[in-house]
Specification:
The structure is a homodimer.
Chain A (H helix, E strand, L loop, with lengths): L1 E9 L6 H12 L5 E14 L5 H13 L5 E8 L5
Antiparallel strand pairs in A: 1-2, 1-3
Chain lengths: 83, 83
Amino acid sequence: MIKVKIHITLKPGVLDPQGKAVQESLNTLGYEQVLNARVGKYMELTLEEGTDVDQQVEEMCAKLLANPVIEDYEYTVEEGVTQ
Amino acid sequence: MIKVKIHITLKPGVLDPQGKAVQESLNTLGYEQVLNARVGKYMELTLEEGTDVDQQVEEMCAKLLANPVIEDYEYTVEEGVTQ
């Protein structure tokens, strides 16, 4: 099987209220050295062997997993995973 | 500045309805080779230099960012980031 790890992050200019909330909560808890926080998504997909992984994952990200208007995505592929 | 990249994932035995929804949506869209999907969180924190990063980040994850009952977390630290 093939394991794909996908990171989806907001594009640099896009406001991230969730990240801001995380940063402020950390500051409130006493972690004042936290200057900034950005929150994204992380997905692990398990695919059948023998598929054209790069093209498929690219399509899946663009169509469903990420919003290409405001989000960037990147992925790494691990082939031959046993579980 | 120090940049910390944090991955928060559900522990292996924990049901992941969001991941299940992603998998079923991908299958419905025609990507039948997707056998499983798990969804987690990805965060990037920017910290001031000179903090005891490992201990601080460990504490932040355990106290606020992750739920250690059902989630695992791991992080990587990049020192000397300019932006």
